[in-house]
Amino acid sequence: xxxxxxxxxxxxxxxxxxxxxxxxxxxxxxxxxxxxxxxxxxxxxxxxxxxxxxxxxxxxxxxxxxxxxxxxxxxxxxxxxxxxxxxxxxxxxxxxxxxxxxxxxxxxxxxxxxxxxxxxxxxxxxxxxxxxxxxxxxxxxxxxxxxxxxxxxxxxxxxxxxxxxxxxxxxxxxxxxxxxxxxxxxxxxxxxxxxxxxxxxxxxxxxxxxxxxxxxxxxxxxxxxxxxxxxxxxxxxxxxxxxxxxxxxxxxxxxxxxxxxxxxxxxxxxxxxxxxxxxxxxxxxxxxxxxxxxxxxxxxxxxxxxxxxxxxxxxxxxxxxxxxxxxxxxxxxxxxxxxxxxxxxxxxxxxxxxxxxxxxxxxxxxxxxxxxxxxxxxxxxxxxxxxxxxxxxxxxxxxxxxxxxxxxxxxxxxxxxxxxxxxxxxxx
Length: 428
Description:
The protein folds into 2 domains: 3-147, Four Helix Bundle (Hemerythrin (Met), subunit A) (Up-down Bundle), CATH 1.20.120; 152-428, Alpha-Beta Complex (paralog of FGE (formylglycine-generating enzyme)). Helix 1 runs antiparallel to helix 4 and helix 3 packs antiparallel against helix 5 (124-147). It has helices at 3-20, 25-29, 39-58, 90-110, 124-147, 210-218, 230-239, 276-285, 293-301; strands spanning 168-171, 174-178, 194-198, 201-204, 247-249, 254-258, 261-264, 302-303, 308-309, 356-362, 387-390, 407-409, 418-419, 423-425. It is of the alpha+beta class. The strands form 5 sheets. A 4-stranded mixed β-sheet has the order 12-11-10-13.
């Protein structure tokens, strides 16, 4: 990462943030769900985060707006309470983040990316804020989907899907290296690289599609407690859940609502907007299970011939439109089988992009984990509350996606762009 590339990434992510907050002020200041912040909070928060880490911590610059630090501290105020805070209005938020960004570019010009300071080395602090802003942009898209407002239905051209091919791919028993010591912008929870020994298993070549998920529904999957964990069954009954979020049926066909547009459900796309409980229930119904996080990463990124991890399933080359669906080119997953050129060494496809994929694992630290640059990014979330998601969705940006990247959320979450694939142990 040189300074020109970093500057271009900073420009690209800011253009994206401003595009998602170019709506009427009323849309930006309203809370569309207690699960999500008002969009104007996200907009000012990314600027405040950038000020804290690039200007103050890396650049040694005095605070610009210290009086707003508390307002935009994500750990002090739950999302449901943020509308009650004295938030910057849309125009003031835009002026604030513009002022921060101008000074950030000055810091970029001045610091030594090859120096010994950990925040400076390889531009880590810039990677931190770029990825953070892209993650909030994806959160903004989830908020806009919940709002039901039209206008962000991008229907960019995606490759056609293809039928045929094996349902599963085989991953032989043996060790692999999980995590990374070398990727310069990797987060602390992706480190350190460590050896993991796995038994042989099978994993779905493709994510579970809408057609297969409809079969689960129509077979009574939501009415049969055999397929659900005790907690999942209680959640399903309490919430009255009968299908993925944003799905409806008229008794003859299935429909989905996407950014204010109701349209026929495309049966050849990966299912999305399902909770961990729903994914787990489907897997049980199908006679399978969700893969562990380690199984997912090995199938995605391990090269058994070279005996090393790949940055992406296909290798080291940057993601392109012939390999994966990332970066909001289209506001939906690509058809199943659309990216044979993005297959992993084991033949698993669409493991990066399209939908975040639930795994069976809780979010836990790797052996030898060390917090950097602050405990609140990862460490405070470790335990048995959050399930790990992998792979990135169509709404994720390539700057924040790699085979080692770890996402996590509560098992009830459905507003995010989540799907899954199944696995099974080798039959003895």
